[in-house]
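Sorry, explain these tokens?

___
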Amino acid sequence: MFVSLPIIAQAQQSRWAIEDKRGSIEVFAEFDPGMHHLWQNVDEVARELKVLLAVEPTGQPIQIILFRDRDSYLRYLASSIPQSQQRRAIFYRNGDIYQVYAYRSRTLTTDLRHEVTHAILHQHLPFLPLWIDEGLAEYLEEPESERSGSSRTKTARWKARLGWAPSLQSLENIPSAESMDAD
């Protein structure tokens, strides 16, 4: 079980190059991720969830924890969140704290948007069918301004033109997020 991150942060003050907070969302980072860009993306995800689903952050704490590289991420999470070993980023509920873990990579913005979507959704609905949870997170990975030209959108449109329409039963039978791209 995790010790609450702020307690860890106090014990390891030098670990975090950046500590920032806006409302109920805190950021702890081993590097400077470009806070303006980070907050802009968090705000965009929150705004879209409000517009699309009338879902807003509840005020419960969300912590975004960013590591300088994959090795640092894995060392930190290896024993407490084993499933992080196969992921670039992960959402984890630690009691009443919603945590997003990720490391610096070329996909960091996409990863953060995806996992922050999970954090906000799970504040309202602790259980969501996997296909809805992952579908919304994948949809919101890309900024709204880039979505219509994305390869994911183009692929979905192409499949729809060819008659692809998964049944609700097939969606409910998807066993894991990793298998969602499989046909």
